[in-house]
Structures
1.
Amino acid sequence: MNPLLENLPRFATSGAVAMNPGLDRIRALLAAMDHPERGMPVMLVAGTNGKGSVASMVAAIGTASGLRMGLHTSPHLLNVTERMRVDGTPAPAAWLDATLDRYRPDLERIGPSFFEVTVALSLLWFREARVHAAVVEVGLGGRLDATNILEADVSVITSIGMDHTDLLGATLPAIAREKGGIIKRGKPVVLGCMESDAERELEALAGAAGAQVLRGDAVVLPAGLSVDLPGPHQQRNARIAVAAARAWHGAGITDVAVRTGLEQVRALSGLRARLETVSTSPRIIVDMGHNADAIATALAALSDDPVDVVLLGLLRDKDAAAVGRVLQDMFHGDLWLVSTPGDRGQSAAELAKGLSRSSARLFPTVADACSEMLRSRTSSLCIGSHHVAAEILQAFPE
């Protein structure tokens, strides 16, 4: 990674200590870049789970419609340029390095976070690449997230669950209020399925803003459509994405574009690590699920053809007890635990205590676990953190 970026405060590795909520820094950064966000049609996608998939689906549908689509997502897995894609292709590394050098004085003056810089860089790349529109995945929350500087034409909230409660609130309505902060006055908002108390909170916020509420579950997908991502939850995400794309581009989103975009979403958007099979012998699946709800969803999707092993690495600020209950209820194979890096990380032994699973097998690194998978020929689901997903993708390149 570029050294300038690497030295910026980053939530993915340092946690809340890297958080400095507010929009002043991103506003100053965009001003220094001559406002690349202006005049660019934008969709914001927030939610506890599913937002990366939905954002990627909308971008893929747009590309299939003949639009040149920008897509900003986070976190990245293998290279920071994954965060800034145009029609599925990451920004060139040479462009990133040259642009960081160009704006180094501004970065030193403004003091932004890693996330704020990558959002600004994405928007700048999209302008230089002459995109027709951009889909931007919200980082954490919504109301005070750097992406909320954007005047989105459509906002999407995929789900509301109990995650990042130390930063977003300890109840579903409180979390909904934070994520609902992306709703724009007079602009439509698309909602996924969620608990009724969270939905009521979002409906109230939309009503106060005069924003039309649309629902993903009202969409009927084209007959015979096969979404290029496994699991029934991706069918739900697909309906949200179609509702959002149609709210954004109307009649320009044809059934043909919907079918092409959703059946080729990985190729058209660059999406990775959504129940992705990286090896067939032995069977190894990697997923970005990082909280109890997401891990439960992944296990449910594999219920008809379960794996023998779950390899789990979990960051320290996740609810290990809730994940432990999911595993107790839904998984009856072998549990392997792996250490995660950084200030937010924890050792496999610490995770075993948090899960109350003293019988779990412990590994210091993902590489050690991969060696054992290959030796024992066990079918495995690797999940719990983007750190785990990234190392699995490195171990099993395309």
Note: The radius of gyration is 20 Å.
2.
Amino acid sequence: MSGSDAERPKEADVLLRMTQGFAVSQSLYVAADLGIADYLADGALTAEDLAAKSGSHPGALARLLRLLVAFGIMKGEEHNRFSLTPVGQLLRSDVPGSLRATIRWLVGPWNWRAWENLSYSIRTSQPAFDHAWGISIFDYYECHGDISKIHDEGLEALTAQESSSILAAYDFSSFHTIVDVGGGNGALLAALLRHHPASTGKLADLPHVVNPALDVLQRAGVANRCERIGSNFFESVPQGGDLYILKSIIHDWDDARALTILRNCHRTMDRSATLLLLERTLPDQPTLEAAPRYLIDLTMLAIPGGRERTETEFRRLLGSAGFELMRVIPTGGSLEIVEARKE
């Protein structure tokens, strides 16, 4: 047998493991959706116990739990009981850094159907979500409050992980009024205001998004320093800030619509104000290390119709909107800080 023939089984294993990735993500989704990890917060239980608590079939649930053991999410204990590994602890909804809501959001049926139609996006460069559901993801959230809540909880969990690295990477202390454009439920702005008690904030997003944000702001103890403004960033951006932040906004949109948002910011901002885009930047050449970023890039194509961008692409996009890219600051986390000012 030739050397190349001998290597083929290993190469096939690599492809097959990647091919079955959908089964792993669905298994995690079901475990998260059923709340299995929450039932294990106080210690190991049998599959029968967990099935009774979660409304599942004992035998079928046991098979799911065995898979999760194989992937290091669960541990098999004596007497056919199961417990959580450190990784599995993150499936609990009551622990710092919980990813339960994020998994439910990313792998829920609403997004799953879009991924089923990825070929449509590749053929047309249009969102598969719109093709599958007949409306955009943002209109879908507006029509389905329960799903919008899962989205907000999932995004809040991610923001909680990202906020500390953002705060450590950039000095926000000199800014008096921070405008969070498209700031969702206010998780990032709440973290910024909590760490900088001399600053005030303006949380700007669609009315049905910012109205429930009061709870997040109150829990952070900053509601009295933050104005909630119902607005559409395709039409206008609030005035009066010396810092404008857009976190994971520009990647939701194609260049034409991203330019509209940035030009509205440019029209509103004073010349001395600063613009920060909190985004992932793609390397100029794909690498294995950056593979998760390219997965997110395809997610942006298939679901909202946006894209991730390289530093060069950000520089060009910002320039078209009248901004100069000053620097790109690594945070040590999943996002970079793209700093810009008016030309």
Note: Residues 3-91 form a domain with the Arc Repressor Mutant, subunit A fold (CATH 1.10.10.10).
3.
Amino acid sequence: MSERTIRSHVLTERSPAECRLSAEDVTFLLDRHRAHIRLVPSYQRGRYRLTATGHIGTIVGPGCRVVIRPKIPLPNLFHLLDPSATILATEDQVRPEAGDAALDFLAVRLAQLLTERATAGLHRAYAERMESGPFLHGQLDLPAQLRAPNGRRDRLHCRYEEFTADVLCNQLAKATAEMVVRSSLIGDGARAVLGRSLRAFDDVSLILLDHATFEAAAPDRLTQAYRPLLDLCRLLFDALAPGQASGTMPGPAFLLDMERVFEHYVSAGIARTLAESPCHVALQPTCVVTRASAGRPQLKMRPDIVIQRDGLPIAVLDTKWKNGTGLTSDVYQVLAYCTALGVLRAVLVYPGRRDRLWNYELAKTPVVVEMRTLRVVGPRAACLCSLDRLGRAVRKATS
């Protein structure tokens, strides 16, 4: 189907909208994006009620283009994505569709971080290399030598250590940038900026990305400076992954999970406030909450944020990218965390236009559940002050 015949639909996250869809588009959305968009038939033939479920971005189907805008203004979305980033215009300027603008913003931010790492000097480490040739380089690879056909003695199989920048943290960063550059959803200006930043990685190998690769590349003491870059790479990989599903129909997509964006924003802010305290912020730790029992699987939980001191949990925070309605199920969830982890304080954090705070002191348990709204709309300075107040409150409650 040509570009001229593709129908565009603009949604706002969590807000329903009625759209005309072809049967092919309905099948595509149900097959590929059931977790991102709720689709319900309307009373009119060929028209459907679409509701974005906490994601923003762009989906391109066989005959439609769905742009999902955030429920907050675009500058505030950029602030949530990276409070430390300076918003720079690319050559073609940010386009008005918020779904595309988010990808352009993140692409330019990725280019900035790649350039910063190249300027500071790419991380290097010893990596094992293998080669075969007429001369011995390093150690003889005896198993490979014995497997060589016809027992040739003029080719020596060798193993040696090379001090190189072609290591996993750089390979992952390059592969993510290449994936973003290839996306049809990125603007020409952002693509050009990101392409220029990749020149410093010419000697780094291109690898295939998957979740295991990101787990293996988790920053350690030597690569701690790569943490902002690798966090952004993971966010981009997850956001572009829905468009890489196999199938016969085309379907590029960029979908940001706003629950995850909000969770990372809150956890990073609290971590900054607690940096000088004895407490530690653990993001989505896997907690085994049952005693070992033969023949029974152990029960595990993954709270959004756990505040720890001396390796022991002392408070649980759960972020919710929604308004404060339906609180009962949220309270049930954090009470389960408190009971399983043996902590006495839980904090539920919601987005809002201003700060609010209220507590629930339960009648038959010493657990205190604190409900907070965090300002995410308005001037950047006001949003940062709101985040700092939350961090100071957590530090005071856990001191």
Note: Residues 88-96 have pLDDT under 50 and may be disordered.
4.
Amino acid sequence: MDRRGFLKLAALAPLAISASGAEASQKKSGRDLAAVEFVGMLIDTTLCIGCQACEVACAEENGLPYPDVSELKPGERKATPTLYTPVSLFETSKGRVYAKKACMHCNQPACVSACLCNALEKTIYGPVVWHDDRCMGCRYCMIACPFDVPKFEFDKTNPKIAKCTFCPERLKKGRPPACAEACPQGAVAFGSRRQLLDEAQRRIAASPSRYEHVVYGDHDAGGTGVMFLSAAPVSELGYRIDLGNRPFPEYTKEFLYAVPIVDIVLPVLLFGFNRALARDKDGGER
């Protein structure tokens, strides 16, 4: 390779990468525009009585062990590989508050962006699901999730990532998730995300003294499929309020865009420089 050929190749490589990236982006945008409206869940903690019917329904739907439904004690209960949606009792500035937690099914999930083999997928209708036949067990999703949701079955010989999946098989049949259907108080509402946001704002406007004037999950971490209404600040319910409104995958996209340049352009440049220097050296020795 002479110097002219090297310079041509070095100049064309970034353009080729840029073009392929733009094409992939256009295809992704087209797919997103064609997607159906995301479904969501609105959890009104002012209506929750801590009966744990949602836990029982979730266990039955997913073949999990029957949950401990003894009287709840104050303190946060964490999700586990066998408990996808724990209900907790919190002592707050507004008194006792019951609240269930599960996967937030983010609009742009950090877990999906961190997964190296597409084992986690944001489906076109909203739920974030896990594919066992793709997972390699790296557990990057556990590190990436700002809500500490995915759990790994460390005690199993064939472990899996366990978390709420929004009952996608029920959704395909036109039924709501098991937890929403089982709630006797209507504390768990299911529907399109947009309509749930409208309903949340309607409730706040109708009873301004009943609620904090914020819908948690509306914009947090770029927006989530599961949203909360509460009489107390959600920070008192164990939820992070430091996530900002930017989707987590956007924090890393600049770095990821640079990876092809580092992997392809830099080796080409180094190879070219090596060949050019070798040619100059050979010419000088002659």
Note: The beta strands are 39-44, 87-92, 95-100, 120-122, 128-130, 151-152, 161-162, 188-192, 226-229.
